[in-house]
Amino acid sequence: MKALQVSRSVRKLGMARIASAISPVTATKLGPLEYASVDPPDLPGPGWHRVHTHLAGICGSDLSLVEGHASLYFEDWVSFPFVPGHEVVGELDDGTRVILEPVLGHEARGFAPPFDGAAPGDGDDYAHLATGPLEPGIQTGFCCSTGGGWAPEFVAHESQLHRIADDMPDERAVLVEPFAGGIHAALLAAPVVAARQDTGRPAVVAVLGAGTMGLAAVAGLRRYVPDVEIIVGARYPHQQQLAKAFGADVVVGPDGLQRAVRRATGCHTIGDHLSSGAHVTIDAVGTSATVVHSLRMTRPRGRVVLLGMPADVTLDLTGLWHRETELKGAYTYGTEHLPDGRTVRTFDLAIATADALEAERLLSATYPLSDHVDAIAHAATAGRRGAVKIAFEVAR
Amino acid sequence: MPRPGFVLDVDKSTPPTLFWHGEGFRLEKLPADRSRVIYAPEPLDAIDDVDGAIRAALLNPIDMDPLPSLLFAGMKLTIAFDDVSLPLPKMRRPDLRQRIIEQVLTMAADAGVDDVQLVAALALHRRMHEFELRHALGDRVYDAFEPRGLLTQHDAEDPDNLAFLGTTDQGEEIEINKRAAESDLLVYVNINLVAMDGGWKSTAVGLASYRSLRHHHNPTTMEASHSFMDQHASELHKSTWRMGKVMRDHGPKVFQIETTLNTDTFPQPFDFLAKREWEWNAKDRALYLATAKSVAKLPSRSARKLFHGIEAPHQLTSIQCGEVEAVHKVTTQNVYDQQLVEVEGQTDILTLGIPYICPYNVNSIMNPILVMCTGLGYFFNLYRGKPLVREGGVVILTHPTSNEFHPVHHPSYIDFFEEVLADTTDPHVMSQKWEKQYAEDDWYRHLYRTTNAYHGVHPFYMWYWGSHGMKHVGKVIIVGGDAATVRKLGFTPASTMNDALEIASDTVGRSPTITHLKTPPLLIADVK
Fold first, then answer.
1. B528 Cβ contact list (under 8 Å, min separation 6)
2. How far is Cα A389 from Cα B15, in angstroms, rounded to an integer?
3. Does the B6-39+344-527 domain belong in CATH 2.30.30.100?
4. Where do the domains of chain A lie, and which CATH numbers do they carry?
5. Taking the CA of residue A198 as centre, how many other CA atoms within 13 Å lie in the half-sphere pointing to its CB?
6. In angstroms, what CA-CA distances link A177 with A75, A343, B44, B127?
């Protein structure tokens, strides 16, 4: 079959990294992503299914790989060559439509789950991601044993599959995975919000960035974290409108976010930092600048949630030390404990949220796999081109 | 003999009209046979012996005893004066305030008064910088008073230095500067640039707190002021008169000193700005070209510095002292004598060139909120009788309207622009939903009190100034402004005047009548 595949090539990764400064088109052409003939992966064993891709989204982490910006951290957690694509809606051989929960968890890899009913992303020992019968890979889309969504077909374990209702369109279903990521980040704000002492007014949660993940976090905050004032820094007008539609109380440009947080919290500005600030800041971008920005506007003993994949960043952590700020990663999803006491799977929340908000409005364009250069370029410049999510549409 | 104001009917032979465009200009050819341009009267003859006139006025006040007879040893004397917002542009040194205050101080010294303090009547404006105080008061007064803590700037947020005087019959609270309130005599030194200034507005506004000001600086009052330049049709002024009555009954004795200036606004080489275009000679045309082209090439910061460095040659045309209302009646007439221009009827469109300066950006940036305020708050209200544009008509402004703010002078403006205007441009809605938050924001309060920042509520007041204009017209278009910024204000951007007229045609038809109010120099259209 013809699929998009990433090979291990230091030379190509380096060229992509350099070329990405010029244009995403050049980076894609020179980089490690190839549209090539590949063999469909074998089913690894019982409980595995063949999934035929309908739509597969292009995520920020995919872009960082294609453009050679991904951290060396992943060296030991992925296996080459792999077919990317972890935001997927497709169908099984029997025609059942499914969404992929891409983490290759304990069950998929033949290990006992960390607790009964655990989701693939649960657990506090990641050994299973790099050991066992499958080649290393944190998710489908980064593992050479399973393939990924940027191909006509791949394999997925039963524990990774969510069967969806007939009335959920593919265009909505492909947004469920990023929604789950955003909702997970939103729920990481909940303990700080609940534990705050100034309970006379809503807790302030700032969201920096309003791409797909930032918008999903806004949606998650509004639906599942009570008593919060959500302030969003969004660069582009369409992002600002969507942030408002998804439940943000205040939406400003990214340069105005710190000022808006100051306004909402009634604090002072001392040098570069707010004297107090947001109870929680969700950084949905993940650059040095945004992490620094997040730390400056988060109150002492507050929490910064890193939702955007940060890679290498340079930080002066004196402020973090002085303010006892908590820096919290938000990688994926799993089992969530909601403020109202319920225990639920993040994906179930994401499906409900995607339905409620008609998430398909975020899907701006689809491309065939053969037009991957244009697709990647569109995704890399989505914001300024008035787009949010770009996906591959795989013809059967 | 200076010529009165003039209304030019534009025909095919009329040369292009000069429009202000921030720190720059535009030459616009207005449609012939349905456009008119209103020019300000030429400057009235100035008083030659300014110091003599000041002395004569102090010794011959209206409805009060001469100043020396009001001064006595052991008394508490406070001299309040208009802040940096007046006059515009700043006047050449020596400033009138200096000349007047020096004479008042001499008389006080002669009477053995040794408890004298000066107060800059800021209201909620920013504190003046030292160089601005020195410009207004002169080095001698500044050096004599400031180092000893006897020159202060009114702090509307200092509860220990505010005095509550009472309420009007309509429940309006009057709270003013405590030192002024507790003085045996409060001398107020005013520069009356427009008919709106002076009277009880000097003390009841300039020395007041937010608690007081909110009673008239609100959308309802502003919307019902038709216009600010016509006191008897202005709810703003009626409110200050009511407050003035409480001041008179329960406040200090006020000795009001009011002055009027002529319209000699621009020194050489900028004097072509005050001339009528068809009277430009070769030198004027060359100066225009040289100025316009060089300003266009300058970075905005340099252009701003150049223009804010202009010191106007405007000169004193009258000074009168004594009882507040009696004085102000004469002052207002003197302003009218200089600035009134008779105009027949309204038009469909009013065009306004917005210059680099307004009362709130002296030595600062004309931010988008101030562009709106200058256009729809100040210039729109430069009328008596009825507005120059018909109800439902169109106002076209020319200004770059960049998204640029002075971070020290206008911190709350930045948030207002980002946060409040993103939510609403309706003055009533923002008043209810947002004003209190900004007025009571501790950080803004801190900046207002300790740095050179306008009060947190000030951008709201600027927006309210335009509420009558916004309600009256059907559309506001800004030519040459940053499109996104203009839209954020709730207005329509246009790239050229022709583009603006095309856009306006949706509201006023294909052949609208047009008035261009060419100001500065300042004028008031007396619309019949």
1. B342, B343, B344, B345, B385
2. 55
3. no
4. 2-179+348-393 (3.90.180.10), 189-329 (3.40.50.720)
5. 13
6. 24, 19, 76, 55
Q: For testing the chain B interface, which of A204, A236, A255, A263 should be mutated: the one with the most B CBs within 10 Å?
A: A263
Class of domain B50-157+174-208+234-261: alpha beta
Give the H or E element holding residue B187.
Answer: strand B185-189
Option in A260, A266, A268 nearest B419 (CB): A260
- Say if A12 is an interface residue toward chain B (CB within 8 Å): no
* Chain B residue whose CA is closest to A268: B443
**pLDDT tens figures, B316-361:** 999 999 999 999 999 999 999 999 999 999 999 999 999 999 999 9
- 10 Å Cβ neighbour count for B76? 16
**How far is Cα A251 from Cα A209, in angstroms, rounded to an integer?**
11
pLDDT of A286 reads 92
Rounded to two decimals, the ipTM of the complex is: 0.74
Q: How many CB pairs under 8 A join A and B?
A: 31
CB neighbours of B388 closer than 8 A, spacing ≥ 6? B38, B343, B346, B347, B350, B380, B515, B517, B525, B527
Q: For residues B336 and B340, what is the distance between their CA atoms, to the nearest angstrom?
A: 5
**Contact yes or no for B419 and A256 at CB 8 A:** yes
Which chain A residues are Cβ-neighbours of B449 within 8 angstroms? Answer: none
Query: Contacts of residue A259 in chain B, CB cutoff 8 Å?
Result: 414-415, 418
Q: Which residues of B touch A (CB under 8 A)?
A: 414-415, 418-419, 422, 437, 441-443, 446
pLDDT of residue B345: 97
Distance CA(B65)–CA(B63), nearest Å, equals 7
Taking a contact as any Cβ pair under 8 Å apart, which residues of chain A between 125 and 164 contact chain B? Answer: none
The reply to whether residue A256 touches residue B418, judged by beta carbons under 8 angstroms, is yes
Cβ separation A262–B442 shorter than 8 A: no
CB contact under 8 A, B437 and A263: yes
pLDDT, residue A7, reads 86
Q: Can you give the residue ranges of every domain in chain B?
A: 6-39+344-527, 50-157+174-208+234-261
pLDDT tens readout for residues B152-197: 999 999 999 999 999 999 999 999 999 999 999 999 999 999 999 9
**Tokens coding B112:** 């053995």
